[in-house]
Amino acid sequence: MSQIVTLGNTRQRFRIVGGMDALPALLVIGGLIAAATLLGLLVRARSTRVASGCGGDEHQLSVDGAEVTLVQLSSPVCSACTAMRRVAESLVAADPTVAHRELDVVDEPAVASRHSVYSTPTPLVLDREGHVRARLIGAVKPADVRAAVSDAVRALQAPPQDWNQARFVVGAGALSDNTRNDPARVRTMHRGIHESLRGRPTLVVRDGALPPVATARMRRGALRAYSLDGGLNRLVRLQQGDGPAVRAEVTFVIVAQPARAIVGMVQGAATARLHPGATEQSMQDAERTAIESAVRGALRDIEQALPRALR
Known about the structure:
Elements: E1 2-7, E2 10-15, H1 22-46, E3 48-52, E4 68-74, H2 79-94, E5 98-104, H3 109-114, E6 122-127, E7 132-138, H4 142-156, E8 168-177, H5 183-197, E9 203-205, H6 212-219, E10 224-240, E11 243-257, E12 261-273, H7 280-299, H8 302-310
Parallel strand pairs: 4-5, 8-9, 8-10
Antiparallel strand pairs: 1-2, 3-7, 4-6, 6-7, 10-11, 11-12
């Protein structure tokens, strides 16, 4: 059985299925499609993932003489690419060691495929050797780009590592903010990992590809590689007797590389206290302090945890 339904100025014939009128069915289906589209846009708008230390060698994309190259993957139809270009130009103007290069994904499909580019702009942060230090995915914000470039510059300013003494190399793996998916908090954890582990003679903190000397030591069994997966589990503002405070709790799973085998877990917690009447900016600063302190607490004895994992 069929019936004629008029939609606007168009008359269409639809079959009635199971006794349900076609027009209500179409309205229900249309509503579901609209709701799904809106939900997808909201999720995309709120989601930005900073894939720090994602590795990969793109030396052919780095600019000669630059310590850090910001590679902007753009497309012909990209309203946000112009704004991202202005951010990159401001970074180059502020730091002569930073360079900017823009590529069209239509002209560079291989690069887009290697880095799973599904939206533009997608910025890549490369070091002087062409290693990919960070890839920003999703609704990219200018602050995320500036922070990723600053982290790369800071890491390259660290003193050279003596790989002959190192027994372990540890890098930040898949980090996440489980409280509200805030990329700034993920960056704070990443920075806390590097600052906590830097300067230890038998442990190297490094993201991405390893130099040939380290690769050779790994083949001989003299060096073991691990990544830290996990993140921020809890971040709460408290009101205590002597004033407000912020408490942060983090958990990291120790993953052996390249086998991706879980060999241990570390946890840390810290509380940052403020004076009564603290401003919102002071509360945000205290949140960063609490997160970094919780990361330091979790990683304080990690060198003792790694040998236990090897036995």
